[in-house]
Design a protein that fits this description.
8 helices; 5-stranded parallel β-sheet
Length: 330
């Protein structure tokens, strides 16, 4: 007996950032599945999909972030249980979609007796039943190698670059806040050659043994009399960005903007950014921005279309890297 098999795409979201998942589903031209997550009195959670996923290509989407009284660890565990539910419901293939990947900064041992938690998280997703992973602007590209299976590393650069073309087309300087992001800033400046963009970077140091403490020391590059745009993968406590903005202005920059894919905005971040000498702070919607963190200088751009294109390519078994002309893998 011969039978032509049909393909079914199913997209589900955890409770951390369902608005982004709904936007992605709209770009895909379909509805967002109902994960039917129940939370018991002791804090345990139980998802149960409202429809059959047998033989389906299931995408489970969750940004790893603490919101509404839940922690980043809760969001990871919630996604793991959803993946396990799909696996036990006979899904054909399960893809873990993590717009913001938790614990990404713990990707190596910087000092003795430390964990490599980014690898641990990848192992947990594999153990739960995920065959593939999709994420946006990982803190370091090496995390792709932690997951035992294909990883599609997307980038929000096209969205951020289009914003610069529209808002700052007159010879901006793309500034890396540290030496580790020079390659990313250099690529962005090359893409913005039509805007006559230049590049600079900040030399900084972190005092040994002190978390969330950064000291900007010097600017390498010509920033005098120029609009400077700081670019990073995330803004967490805001220390790096604020310190970099202050030294850029001290070296003659006329105006400083900050751009980042992930607006983590932990602890004192909002107070720091309110008082920082930054004219604009441009983020994407990989993470939710609660009302208490919405300040006038913050603008949020959507990456839903990029995620939708990647999900569609995975579903159709076509190239994801072609969406970015192969420049998304670093």
């Amino acid at each position: 007996m011969e039978k032509v098999t049909t393909k079914k795409l199913a997209l589900y979201s955890g409770r951390t950032h369902p608005e982004l998942a709904e936007e992605v589903a709209a770009h895909l031209g379909q509805g967002l599945g109902d994960a039917n997550i129940v939370e018991f009195a002791n804090g345990e959670i139980r998802p149960r999909f409202a429809e059959s996923v047998r033989g389906a290509d299931v995408f489970v989407m969750q940004s790893h972030y603490g919101i509404d009284g839940r922690s980043v660890n809760d969001s990871i565990m919630e996604q793991l249980t959803m993946i396990d539910a799909a696996y036990r419901a006979s899904a054909k293939r399960i893809t873990s979609v993590c717009p913001f990947y938790g614990y990404a900064r713990q990707d190596r041992k910087a000092e003795g007796r430390e964990p490599i938690t980014a690898r641990l998280v990848a192992d947990m997703f594999k153990a739960a039943g995920a065959k593939r992973m999709i994420s946006i602007d990982l803190h370091s590209g090496q995390i792709q190698g932690f997951f035992e299976g294909p990883v599609d590393h997307l980038t929000a650069a096209p969205v951020l670059e289009n914003y610069i073309r529209q808002q700052a087309a007159d010879a901006p300087v793309i500034v890396s806040p540290d030496s580790g992001r020079i390659k990313v800033a250099e690529r962005m400046a090359q893409h913005l050659v039509d805007c006559d963009a230049d590049i600079a970077f900040i030399y900084k140091r972190r005092p040994k043994g002190q978390a969330n403490v950064v000291e900007a020391r010097e600017v390498i590059g010509d920033v005098d009399g120029r609009l400077c745009i700081l670019t990073d993968d995330m803004i967490d406590t805001g220390g790096t960005i604020v310190s970099a903005a202050e030294i850029l202005l001290a070296r003659g920059a006329t105006e400083v903007w900050a751009m980042a894919t992930h607006g983590v905005l932990s602890g004192p971040a909002i107070d720091r950014l309110k008082n920082a000498p930054l004219e604009r702070i441009v983020l994407t919607n990989t993470l939710p921005l609660p009302p208490e963190k919405q300040i006038p200088k913050i603008e949020v751009l959507s990456v839903a279309e990029i995620i939708a294109e990647a999900l569609s390519a995975v579903f159709d078994d076509t190239s994801v890297s072609d969406i970015f002309d192969g420049e998304n893998l670093a």
